[in-house]
Amino acid sequence: FNFFTVCFIALAAFFGSTFFIPYFGLVFAVMLMVAFSVATFCISYYLNHITEKSIRATVLSFKSMALNLGYGLIGFLYALLVAYLRKTPEMADDKDLLFEAGIGYFPWYFLAGMVFVVLFALWRCPGPTKAFRSIEQEDKG
Questions:
Q1: How far is CA 62 from CA 16, 79, 106, in A?
Q2: pLDDT tens digits, residue range 82-91?
């Protein structure tokens, strides 16, 4: 539920940001910040529940490192996209048009990434919901 809620908010924000609506467009930036913050919180929450106490700090440190590497990879891919788009003659001189064209790819990249994560999770973790429910029952009991 949390994953799909965060994905819905992020996808709506990515699609909304492609319209470049003056002033109101900031709402989409806030939605992205909320989605990423909630995703980070949920990852930490679930890792805390499934990780042994003796290695929890290490696991959370690796989580932070993985998120930072992910952000770095996204930045690198965006730089490659902009370099590719800059080869188009009409975009080579107009930086605003280049930025708008680059942002137009974000929702589609996110959607493709989301589908990949869902398919990978279904393949590698066929029943995670049952496992988390049993952990939550142990915490309550």
A1: 32, 25, 26
A2: 999 999 988 8
Residue 109 CB coordination number (10 Å): 14
**Residue 49 CA from chain centroid, whole number:** 21
Q: Which two three-digit tokens encode residue 4?
A: 């799909």
The residues near 114 (Cβ < 8 Å, ≥ 6 apart) are 7, 11
Would you state the pLDDT for residue 79? 96
The pTM for the full model equals 0.83
Other C-beta atoms lying within 10 Å of the C-beta of residue 126: 8
Residue 128 has pLDDT above 90, yes or no: no
Flag whether pLDDT at 62 surpasses 70.
Answer: yes
Where does 18-105 have alpha helices with state H? 26-50, 56-86, 89-92, 95-103
Residue tagged 């590719």 (tokens)? 84
Tell me phi and psi for residue 23, to 5 degrees: 65, -55
Token reading at 45: 């929450």
